[in-house]
User: Fold this.
Amino acid sequence: MLVHSRKAKWALWAVFLVLFLPLFALPLLVVLGASFATHWSSVLPSGLTTANYKAATHGDALQALTTSLLTALGASLLALTVGTWAALAGAALKKSHRRVMDALFVLPVAVPSVVVGLAVLVAFSQPPVLLNGTRWIVVIAHTVLVTAFAYQSVSAALRRLDPAYEQAAASLGAGPARVLWRVRLPLLLPSLTAAAGLCFALSMGELSATMMLYPPDWTPLPVLIYAATDRGSLFAGSALAVVLMAATLLVLLAVSRIRTRAAHR
Assistant:
C-alpha cells in the first residue's frame, strides 16, 4: 500500500468498508437471505426453507442453468478466438488503422445491449443466414457483446510483450507460424485465460439482448430469474440468482487456477 501512515491506512480501510458494504456486500447478502425465506415481513427474512433451492436445481431451472453455461462457454470461446486473431492482426497495423479497429470492436459495448440484440435479430432473420428462433442467434449475440473485452485484453498484453523473445526465435530459424504457436501464444496465455473468464462472466449475466432473441427451448437462467421476479416470486428468483452466482464463481475459480499456472510457467 502506498500510504505509510497507520492512521491514514485505518482511514482508507474505513472508507472502503463504508462504500463496499452498502453498495456491494449488502445487496448480495439481501439476495442470499431472501433465497432461504418464504416471506419477509420484518427486518430479517422469516419462514426459513431450502425449498427455493430444491426448485432452483431441478426441472426447468436446471435446464436453464445448463443453457447459460453452454451459451457462455460457446460465446467465450468464439470471442476469445476472434478477439485474439484481431488483436494479433491489429498489432501489425499502423497506429491510425489500429485506432479504427479498436473503435469497431468497442462499438458493441458503447451502445445499449438491446440495440445489439435488435441488430442481430434483423441481420439473421432473413436468408441466406436464417438463425432467428434457434439457439445459435443467442450465442452470436453474446459473442458480439463480449468480444470487445477479449480484444482489449489481448491487445494490452501484446503491447507489454518483450519483442526480444520473438526476435530470438526468428533468429534461430523459426518461421512466423512457429513463433506464434511456440512463443507469442504461450506468453499471452495468462491474458487469454483472464479474457476468457471475463467473457464467460459477462455472458452468464447478460439479459437485455437475450430477451429479444431466445427461443422457447433455449432459455438462459437470467431470463428465468427475470420471469420469476416479474411474477412476484422474489424468493424463488433470489435462489435462482444465488445458483447463477455460484456457478459463475466456480468456473471463474477454475479459470483463475489455470491462469496462475500459466503465469508461473
Q: What stands out?
A: The two ends are 27 Å apart (CA to CA).
